[in-house]
Design brief:
single chain, alpha+beta, Pnp Oxidase, Chain A, six-stranded antiparallel beta barrel, globular
Length: about 160
């Protein structure tokens, strides 16, 4: 999962930069930008619509953040142009959300700002999300006890407090 996300995050970064600045990409960046599209096409990824999206039984756990909170979801299909997500409740087309995906094994978390393109109005709730902004990738550490540790440190307490 991490390798595919890394390639797609770079794709979305380059596309967002070009859309924002209009500055042409270098030849190396153009090749980098086209590689995920070419590989996705060779793997048979398509841009599914609300009626023909398949529900993969092996979805990637994710969290959707909206204005009034967050809720659990599963990424069912990942493609350069669209993410298909299933969730307990649907979001309306046009609504903005942030998709959070973490890989505990590699210690990487992705945050993808998205907009809902379509939502299937019957269960299971499926939504098509398009990345709309610059995604981020962050790393985190685990400890020997298995608990996650933040890179932020709390100041040491003074003696006697």
């Amino acid at each position: 999962m991490t390798e595919r996300f890394d390639v797609l995050v770079r794709f979305w970064e380059l596309r967002a930069r070009y859309d924002a600045t209009g500055v042409p990409l270098t030849e190396a960046e153009r090749n980098e930008l086209l590689s995920p599209v070419d590989s996705a096409a060779s793997e048979g990824d398509t841009k599914p619509g609300p009626r023909d999206a398949e529900v993969s039984p092996r979805g990637v756990p994710a969290t959707l953040t909206v204005d009034n909170g967050s809720f659990a979801a599963h990424l069912r299909q990942i493609a350069p142009e669209l993410l298909v997500v299933s969730a307990a409740e649907p979001l309306a087309p046009g609504e903005r959300t942030t998709v959070h995906v973490a890989d505990a094994v590699s210690g990487v978390e992705y945050r993808l700002p998205c907009v809902v393109r379509w939502a299937r109005d019957e269960g299971p709730w499926l939504m098509g999300l398009a990345v709309a902004g610059i995604p981020t990738r962050a790393t985190f550490k685990g400890s020997a006890s298995g608990l996650l540790r933040s890179p932020l440190r709390m100041p040491a307490r003074a003696a006697g407090t």
